[in-house]
Each structure stands twice: as C-alpha cells, then as structure tokens.
Design goal:
The chain is α+β, with helices and mostly antiparallel strands. It folds into two domains: 1-67; 79-270, Glutaredoxin (3-Layer(aba) Sandwich), CATH 3.40.30. It has eight helices and six strands, in the order H-E-E-E-H-E-H-H-H-H-H-E-E-H. Helix 3 (145-156) packs antiparallel against helix 4 (161-170). The longest helix is centred in the first third of the chain and has 66 residues, at 2-67. It is elongated and about 130 Å long. The chain starts with a helix and ends with a helix.
C-alpha cells in the first residue's frame, strides 16, 4: 500500500513538473512572439519613414530638374511684352529685366532672397535697369501659387504689393488662403477690401495673361528671366534668356554686356 501511494505521489510530481515545463515553454513562446511583433512593427515604421523620405527626395529632384531645363526650353523669343507687370527701378531705362516667377517655386524664393538684393543694389536702385515681375504659377505642382499671385495684386490695391510679394517668398510653405490673410493683417491692410478682392477673382485674368505671354514666348519653367531692350511701345527685344537657378554672376555678365552695347550705340549715334 505504501508503494502504491509512493507511486501515486511520484506520478503527481512528474505531472506537475510537466505542466510547469509546458507553462514555461508557452511563456517563452509568448515572449518570443511579442518580441518578434515589436521587431516587425519597428521594421514597418522604418519602412514607412524611408518611403516618406524617398517621396520627399523625388519631389525635390523633380523641382531641381524643372529649374534646370534650359535644354528643353524652346528657342529664345525675339520679342516679348512687359505689359502690366509691377516694376522697380528706372522706368526710362533702356534695359529691362523681366522675371517670370512662381511664389511656391523654391528656386524662385532662392533668387528673391539671395540674388535679388545684389541686383537691386547694383542695377535697380542705381537706375541702370528696370525690373518687371510677371506671374507664372505652375499650377500642376504648386497648387497655392496662383492664389498667392492674386493676393499680391490685391495688396497692391492698398499700396503694399512689394511688401506682400516679399512676405510670400519668405514663407513659401504657408501660402494657403488663411496664411494669405495673416500676411495681409501683418501688413496692416484693410481686411474686408483685401478679402473681397481675393475671393472675387478680380485679378485672375491678369495672372492668366502673364501665363499666356510666357507660353507664347516658349517660357515654361520658373524662374525664367528676360534681359532685353525696351522699345517705345513697351515691347522688349530679347537680348538674353536666363532660365533656372543661376548665380548672380550670370546676371551680371548678361546685364553688363547689354548695358555696354547700349552705351556703344549711344556713343555711335552721338558722333
């Protein structure tokens, strides 16, 4: 009887050990599964971040290519209009620099922030040239650029065109309608008039006219710059077409060459 009880106790102990071992194995498997799930989640998160970074890089590469496409641009136009564009500098200057630009284009912003101040100091404020800005919003890739162009013109009704123009280029990542109103408030504009102007589409046709003129001249990328000789009817004979993100030196060479040609012609006529 004692042996039987002993065997029963031994069997119970073995069963207990087996159950304990099975529970341990199950716990280990659960821990392993949880760890594997965490690793898998981390890998998915990493892949998503990589995908987002790749998409951003592709967008940046696309804009770089668009800004460096002179080879795809049609042949240089002979004559172009400077009609309606806001101007800076000497309106009687024989040489004009026409800037076709997009408020959402990063390379246009780079020009405004880095190159324009140098041109302003050397050529515009000194009266050597006239600068004309014309709108060329690339709506397919810059959905906020068109309304930003309208906002600048609406600000111009209250004498703040260039102030709005510069603010838009300083905040190119915030060009939605709400931010346009914030900029208008910051400039002290009469908001009801500004809002009425912006929502009415008052300047849509003028922006469209700039786009059409650019297209007729074969200009399809931003920024694009025409350096030319002004005629009496405000049409411009093109001397040089500069496209894409170019350094100040490229403008200096072209402008100095144009000014030298004008001075030589004046001297010849004078003699």
């Amino acid at each position: 009887m004692k042996n039987f009880a002993k065997r029963i106790a031994t069997a119970i102990s073995m069963i207990t050990l087996a159950l304990t071992y099975a529970q341990s194995i199950t716990a280990q498997k659960s821990q392993k599964t949880a760890a594997e799930l965490r690793v898998l989640k981390d890998e998915i998160k990493y892949l998503k971040q990589g995908q987002q970074a790749t998409q951003q890089e592709l967008r940046e590469i696309k804009e770089i290519l668009e800004a460096r496409l002179p080879a795809r641009t049609p042949s240089q136009p002979a004559i172009i209009s400077m009609r309606g564009g806001p101007t800076l500098g000497n309106k009687d200057a024989p040489i004009v620099l026409i800037d076709f630009s997009d408020y959402q284009c990063p390379f246009c912003g780079k020009f405004v922030r880095e190159t324009m101040p140098l041109l302003d100091r050397e050529y515009i404020k000194t009266g050597k040239i006239q600068y004309v800005f014309r709108d060329l919003p690339l709506e397919t890739i810059h959905p906020n650029a068109f309304e930003a162009a309208e906002a600048a013109r609406c600000a111009g009704e209250q004498g703040k065109y260039w102030e709005m123009h510069n603010r838009l280029y300083q905040s190119q990542d915030a060009l939605e309608t709400t931010h346009l109103s914030i900029n208008a408030q910051a400039l002290g504009l009469e908001m009801s008039e500004f809002t009425k102007c912006l929502t009415s589409g008052k300047y849509e046709s003028e922006v469209r006219h700039d786009i059409a003129d650019a297209g007729n001249a074969g200009i399809q990328v931003t920024p694009s710059f025409v350096i030319g000789l002004v005629s009496q009817d405000q049409r411009v004979r093109v001397l040089k077409l500069i496209t894409g993100a170019q350094p100040y030196s490229a403008f200096k060479v072209a402008l100095d060459s144009a000014l030298a040609a004008v001075n030589q012609e004046s001297a010849r006529v004078g003699n």
